Amino acid sequence: MANIPIIALFCFTIFVSSSLKFVYGAENMTYVVVGHVYCDTCRVEFETKLSEPISGAVVKLECRNRTDNHLTFQSQEIVTDENGDYHIEVEGDYEESDCDVVLVRSPNPDCSEPSEAWRISRVVLTRLDGVSGAVVKLECRNRTNEAITFQSQEIVADGFGDYHITVEGDYEESDCNVALVRSPRADCSDPTEAWRKSRVVLTTFDGLSGKLRFVNNLGFKKDIALPQCTRILQEMGYYELSQEAGDFSPSSKL
After folding, report:
1. What is the greatest pairwise CA distance in the chain?
2. Are the beta carbons of 56 and 90 closer than 8 angstroms?
3. 210 and 154 housed in the same domain
4. Is the pLDDT confidence value at 22 over 50?
5. Does 75 have pLDDT greater than 70?
6. What is the CA radius of gyration of the chain?
7. Structural domain span for residue 51
8. d(CA 120, CA 133)
């Protein structure tokens, strides 16, 4: 049998999370955008066990006013460390802007094609979009017999929709979730199917060190979608979802 050459093309992609620190008020906020750049060695547009961190990759953060597309913030070019990680400090609140971390370039010639799915990643740099007064709770259950091993009191989100829960002990044998309980807003009280609860790891025996544990944002759905949702979803390529927010189909643009 003839040898068939296998050509492996590589691309690099990005994941972004953000941590927030409150300083006086929203206009004086300091945000730290934390992210990671890796090489998608399987060309599947998401991270796998074979993915490799890219040290020396370059990214930048840009914010643009969503009305006139005017540039409201632009970071310097940031270089990832030996683990492919980076952080960008941002001062101020950008409620009226869309902010994205953008891949600039890779130092690896064999892994320099930006991932289509993750060449740009959106990050929220405002605390003015939270649901003040929303109620959540944390519950842990033994993964063998489903017995409750920890249950917090109901926790009320602050004026920015943020909350924190202090937990003592280690819950290696439990699955722990923060769950939405109720919303104080009549027009935004339907829990989202994807984010009505979020898993959080409360053990140090799985390689996670330190006290802080970050939970994915939980969300309620507004009764009626905002009029600008259709345009935003179109820009993101979610055509089927955009039809739910308004009359749009890909064929209408042809």
Report:
1. 71
2. no
3. yes
4. no
5. yes
6. 21
7. 11-123
8. 32
Element holding 235 (H helix, E strand): helix 229-236
* Cα–Cα distance, 11 to 33 (Å, whole number): 22
According to the model, what pLDDT value does residue 135 have? 92
What pLDDT shows up at residue 142?
Answer: 93
Distance CA 51, CA 104 (A): 19
Across 115-131, b (16+ Cβ under 10 Å) vs e yields: beebbebebbbbbeebb
Closest Cα to residue 196, out of 126, 135, 110?
A: 135
Any idea how long the chain is? 254
Measured between alpha carbons, how far is 212 from 166 in angstroms, rounded to an integer? Answer: 10
* Amino acid at position 145, single letter: N
List % helix, strand, coil for the chain (3-state, nearest 5).
10, 35, 55
Look at 140 and 201; give whichever has higher pLDDT: 140
The mean pLDDT of the chain is 76
pTM higher than 0.90:
no
Residues 207-219: pLDDT tens digits?
A: 555 555 555 555 5
Let me know whether 16 and 117 are in one domain.
Answer: yes
Q: Which of 139-143, 160-164, 185-189, 233-237 has the lowest mean pLDDT?
A: 233-237
Q: Based on the number of CB atoms within 10 Å of its own CB, is 28 exposed (0-12), middle (13-18) or buried (19 or more)? A: exposed
**Which residue in 89, 84, 90, 94 sits closest to 128, CA to CA?**
94
| Boundary-marking domain end, from 80, 95, 123 | 123
Top-confidence residue, 132 or 128: 132
